[in-house]
Write a structure and sequence with these properties.
The protein is an all-alpha fold and 455 residues long. Helix content is 83%, strand content 0%. The protein has one domain. Helix 11 runs parallel beside helix 15.
């Protein structure tokens, strides 16, 4: 095992930072795909932004159905790596690639066939319906490539190698910077495809990243070697992957479903509010990336330390991660509060109403970013321990028991109207973060881990 990647000894802070910073940068680069799309589509029209915004929750729902299993594979690999079992690391990695590939193919086919019915179901209006369907149909072909890269990224993260995936993402994002305006607007003999062109650009770069990632795993020079001979159904292993990964898939699916239901409320207020919501959600996804980075780093650290049976050290990881997320994201949120309007104007420069609505959404959300960060990193603790059911429980509480009912109540039954939708976000963040903190301090995840390790 590569000693430099072991995370079961030494400074926890140094390990967290060494893992989290490349993950954060890689996630920023991932989000850049969406931001680049929004930037260029905003030059077409607000409707172009709205057509992509309305399809995003469904895209996220489909991705999450299989994406959670990549985390399951990462947790298993991290625990075997902490236990210094190289044979099991390689076998688990091969199985993860195989299972996720099968799932990605199925999801890509289903998503393509159901594109138009799903867009109609979530309330796409005639001015944006066709563009949203086109974008979704093209994007569905990219699920296979996207899933394969996510597997590569998750497996490398499980053994503590976070730099290599970041470099791959950097290359593909730089390429997307060129392809996006080229495919959207065209140049010379190359025709412009409008909204559909943004999806063409994304899947082209996703294919490149997937090929690079799989080639590295097959070559086996970076700590993991996958083999075709080990890519056949192992029902006992698959059952373990599903036991850890399915709650995470349901967690992410529940988030996506909640986003979809919120979209149904948003669309009732017209395209301007849909565009403002799309910009606000994209800014939110960018701002919480540091929390997600520390959450992923926390999952890896906790997973390796549990594999090495260092439960106390795993708990210290959670305490430190929560403090970093709380103070760091609160500071970022306050900055964003004061710069909400120019940030919104950057994406839709020529629509005063969208700028006004989007800036207000950001200002209302921003102060709650710190507590949202706490929830994210503590979910990382639960996931690293293999107790992914806890993350699912917190998500259901946050989104389905608080956010959606509150959004409906405030927007449909008070004079706040669409502003009521915005207020549902910080209130649900606060309650969800408090629930995660209380559950972490109760310590059941530790007791469960100790019992599991001694079976």
């Amino acid at each position: 095992m590569k000693q430099k990647q072991k995370l079961t000894e030494g400074s926890i802070l140094n390990s967290l930072i060494r893992l989290a910073l490349p993950i954060i940068l890689a996630n920023v680069l991932h989000t850049t795909y969406q931001l680049i799309d929004t930037f260029w589509l905003g030059r077409l029209s607000a409707n172009a932004v709205a057509s992509v915004s309305i399809s995003f929750p469904i895209l996220f729902l489909v991705l999450s159905l299989g994406g959670g299993l990549t985390l399951g594979g990462s947790v298993i690999v991290a625990q075997y790596f902490g236990a210094e079992n190289k044979k099991k690391v390689d076998y688990s990695s091969s199985q993860t690639v195989f299972v996720i590939f099968i799932i990605s193919v199925i999801l890509a086919i289903v998503a393509y066939l159901l594109a138009e019915p799903m867009m109609i179901l979530i309330g796409a209006e005639p001015p944006i319906l066709q563009d949203s369907v086109d974008y979704f149909e093209v994007s569905s072909f990219g699920f296979i490539f996207l899933f394969m890269f996510f597997v590569f990224q998750s497996l490398m993260r499980g053994i503590g190698d976070v730099m290599l995936p970041m470099y791959v993402v950097l290359i593909t994002v730089l390429l997307n910077l060129v392809l996006d305006p080229l495919f959207i607007f065209g140049y010379g003999d190359i025709p412009g495809y409008g909204v559909k062109g943004a999806a063409y650009a994304s899947i082209s770069t996703q294919a490149i990243s997937a090929i690079i990632g799989l080639a590295i795993l097959f070559k086996g020079k970076r700590g993991i070697k996958i083999r075709l001979s080990q890519m056949k159904f192992d029902w006992k292993w698959t059952k373990r992957l599903f036991r850890i990964g399915i709650p995470t898939s349901l967690d992410q699916s529940t988030r996506a479903a909640a986003m979809t239901v919120i979209i149904l409320l948003v669309t009732s207020f017209g395209s301007d509010v849909v565009a403002a919501y799309g910009i606000g959600v994209r800014i939110l996804s960018l701002i919480v990336i540091p929390a997600l980075g520390f959450a992923m780093a926390t999952t890896t650290l906790v997973g390796q330390n549990i594999g090495a049976r260092q439960i106390k050290r795993a708990e210290k990881v959670g305490d430190l991660s929560a403090k970093i997320a709380m103070y760091g994201l609160t500071s970022i949120g306050l900055l964003l509060f004061f710069f909400a309007e120019p940030v919104t104007r950057f994406f839709v420069p020529n629509d005063p109403q969208v700028i006004k609505d989007g800036a207000l959404f950001i200002k209302i959300m921003a102060p709650s970013f710190g507590i949202l960060g706490v929830q994210q990193v503590l979910n990382g603790v639960f996931n690293g321990a293999g107790f992914t059911q806890a993350s699912l429980l917190i998500t259901v509480f946050n989104l389905w028991m608080v956010r959606f009912p509150l959004a409906y109540l405030l927007s449909e039954n008070t004079s706040l109207e669409e502003v009521g939708l915005w207020w549902a976000f910080p209130i649900s963040n606060l309650l969800g973060g408090l629930m995660a903190f209380i559950y972490f301090k109760m310590g059941y995840w530790k007791l469960r881990t100790i019992r599991y390790r001694h079976r």
